[in-house]
Amino acid sequence: MLKLIKSLKRRTPLGWLQLSHEKTRLLVALAGIAFSDILIFMQLGFQTALYASNTRLQSHLDADIVLLSPNARNLVNLSTFPRSRLYQAMDVPGVETADPMYVQFSDWKNPQTRQKTSILVIGFNPDRPAFELPELQEYADEMKLPNTVTFDRNARGAYDEAIAAIDRGETVKTELENHTLTIAGLYEMGASFAADGTLMTSDRNFLRLFPRRRPGGVSLGILHVEPGRDPEAVAQALDAYLPKDVDVLTKEGFIEFEKHYWATNTAIGFVFTLGTIMGFIVGIVIVYQVLSTDVRDRLPEYATFKAMGYRNRYLLGIVFEEAVILAFIGFFPGVGVSLGLYALTRNATNLPLYMTLFRAIQVLTITLIMCGISGAIATRKLQAADPADIFG
Amino acid sequence: MAAITIEHLDHYFGHGALHKQVLFDINLEIETGEIVIMTGPSGSGKTTLLTLIGALRSVQSGSLCVLGRELCGAKEKQLVAARRHNGYIFQAHNLHRSLTAAQNVQMGLELHSQIPRREMEERAARILERVGLSDRADYYPENLSGGQKQRVAIARALVSHPAIVLADEPTAALDSHSGREVVNLLHELAKEEGCTILLVTHDNRILDVADRIVSMEDGRLTAQNGRAVEKNRTNSINTVLQST
């Protein structure tokens, strides 16, 4: 190791000198790597945002354990299970409360544009709101009033004027399933890929809005365990005690359940992975082009080095040195532009797109691998550097 | 002791129908410290012989001993090691475009891992001064004239004190004045260092620096004008001129 550092210290940094001497070539390479890094950052960002936004409701759920139908597929397709399972759950030691939650995907009239828009409606016991959102407690009494709901301030769509009106204290009314709704207040949740926005109200209001939904058919059971109890252990006890027509998940398990659905049952995960691979390949091609042009241009110089007695290994080292330098200095403009694009996307779509240290390291590693592969292919051209050719 | 001993050396290019013999039974001995010029028409095999001596090609048959090491049948690794004892000067200077004159010269020393960085810099600066280019040390080759570039190339070849210098048409790309300067410099430096020089050239203007002139034609050594060169230089040059 010490020997390596010593030999690096006396070595002429040829890779760097060659790159910095050819400014145009260096710029082309940097632009190419930055471009491919931006592609990868956007794909990975969207993928993470997809999972995060689709589990935002689950993450805000005020529950230790949830009960759901074995037919449940995801939050908007939960199916139902018999309410009696909630009463049975109360028999299990450690369970403190068990409340029903009802979920229905529906259409409402956008209060601002009067256009029909899809919306996710959630009903629960207003005295024990199903979500950890302070606003819900505040509007508990309003939600008990007939056809009165609360609305997601961060919903995707043209709601800005309606939200401003509610903030001014005006009464905003709209229609859903032939009922006239009053929006009593706002909470902050955010759009997901599945639902542009949510409405929350009391379970009674929910059943009034959707008369075909029976109170006995529960979408989700919201359970709290007694303080000091391990939710994991209680969940196992519940699973053993309850009939097979209901599944038991901890809150973390429920978040994973939703992520797993989006990862396996839709093309979205595949699409973003493919996008990442495309960015990677674009990067390899561009870096390979730059490095192989450089090697071809310098064949007489490399052949001279070989004639002087430099080993092939030394020339390989130069090409890989160039690859690593390109990876590092191409990465930073890539991160910079990606940060800007993340902010732009966040403002335009409300998707939770954030740069994390983990992702930055992940993409830097991908970039190094990318440049390494390009370098490895480019070194094949070195074979053409024949020291016998340089005479005459 | 002879620096280079060649006995019954044959060499072939190509395979199958294109198989062609380019060197025929070469026998040559070059003493340590001797300056030998090799002349002959294009395609006579001079360059091939030079690359064989320089360990840039594998020797196929016969015997080629350089500094006491047999190159016939040597492995790639041994060839690379043998190259490190030689200094090369090319027709095209072959300097590295992205390195300054000083850095180019240092590349001739970096091979020898026992020399520390500081010493490399000092020796490069010293030899550049010796070839009259200390004020051009930080220039890139593109900003040097042809003669200056060739002087940097000579500095690079000689900075590691090689036992043998192999030069291929070092004056071909230069005007007569620069060519003369370059050859004189090569001559002086080699004499100071006591190294053996084998120089391939078409350039009749520089034949006088040689201790001996050998000429090649169609892959065979045709004439060896030995020490006679020293005694009767003009005469021997004329002989060579007539023979080429």
Describe this structure in words.
- The complex is a heterodimer of chains A (392) and B (244).
- Chain A is of the alpha+beta class and 392 residues long.
- Chain A folds into 2 domains: 14-53 and 268-387, no CATH class; 70-245, no CATH class.
- Chain A has 15 helices and 11 strands.
- In chain A, helix 3 (23-54) packs across helix 14, helix 3 (23-54) crosses helix 15 and helix 12 (268-297) packs across helix 15 (357-378).
- The model of chain A has no long low-confidence stretch (mean pLDDT 88).
- Chain B has a single domain (32-57, 77-243), classed as 3-Layer(aba) Sandwich (Rossmann fold).
- A 6-stranded mixed beta sheet of chain B has the order 6-7-8-3-9-10, sandwiched between helices. A 4-stranded antiparallel beta sheet of chain B has the order 2-1-4-5, with helices on one face.
- In chain B, strand 7, helix 6 (176-193) and strand 8 form a beta-alpha-beta unit.
- The model of chain B is unreliable at 227-244 (pLDDT under 50).
- The chains are: A alpha+beta (392), B alpha/beta (244).
- The interface between A and B is medium-sized, with 27 and 33 residues.
Features:
heterodimer, A: 392 residues, alpha+beta, 2 domains, B: 244 residues, alpha/beta, four-stranded antiparallel sheet, 8 helices, globular, disordered C terminus
